[in-house]
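We modelled the chain as a single entity of 346 amino acids. Its sequence is:
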Amino acid sequence: MTDQDTATADVVDRSTLETYAACPCQGQAVEQRRVMTASAPTEIGTEAHRVIAVAIAAFATGDVSAEGIRELLHTGAQKSRPDVQPEVVSTLRGSAHMISQLLAFREDGEPRHPNDVMRFDGGEGNRSGQLAWEPRLDLPVCTGAVDLLLATESEAELDLYDWKTGRTWFNSTAVSQSFQFAFYSAMIFENYPECDTVNVRVLMTRFSAMAPVVRFARAKLEDYTARILSALTIYDEHRDSPRPPTWPHTAKCQLCPASGICPEATRDVRDFADDPAAGLQQLAVLGAATKTLKAAARAYWKANGEFRAAGLEFGMNKPAKKRAPVPDMYAIAIDTDQGADSCDTP
């Protein structure tokens, strides 16, 4: 599929598809931008990926040594966005050597030719990291951007590198079960018919460590495709739904940016005796929603100081045994002359 075809087609990117597959309600809220998804880790990751992409482009288009790559990574991190620069420098400091080595040299120690760089995030033309795939005519076209795709000694194998700049540790199980890498592998098989194996290599930049290589085989393409088609069907069915379903789960809800507007958090409190399973799901969402609202309250407190409403105050005055109390909500004595419905803000 050409870039022109993709521009005029009904398209969904990998990240959106994966979010819908986790929970249609969350997916729709994020896609329609009804919730904020930006965060410090994502902003740091975006900047770190940009710095790495610049170094890859320099190697792919010219004669840059391993030392030159390291210098580009070092100076690029230093010149990154001021608000996240210290973290970008930190996450790339230890891994710059590993990135320079895997770009400049093959596994056998021989110098790598720049033409080995087949695709990378930020690349242009046929080296663009953006791939497209139309698994079925009645469903949207899938797109996704790989961080780095390298040629190997054999056309039957390609090396897919992915940079993880957060604090999550990836082992072989996490990589092999990842929707992201099954998705990318399927797209690579579609775009490179001669390729039978995609070697996925995840570099955790903060830890200067590489996860064990996980091989995705064309022989299992039917499994990968079925998983992607299932996610595509969910997306196609619920992207315009007035009430997309919720799939609460404690681990997912704790990370969900839409927990504050989730229907499970706003419906009437369930009676555990009537439906304990549904009540437990609602409890998971309410807990995540409370965490989201407290984060917003702390941000407001940081900008404006303590604030009150109906006998409650948010600030640092709550009695606490901890040496370093954190801002939280707590009951206060109500001034009967003022009334319980007052709200004082600085």
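As a brief sanity check on the tokenised model: The first strand starts at residue 11 and ends at 13. The first helix runs from residue 3 to 8.
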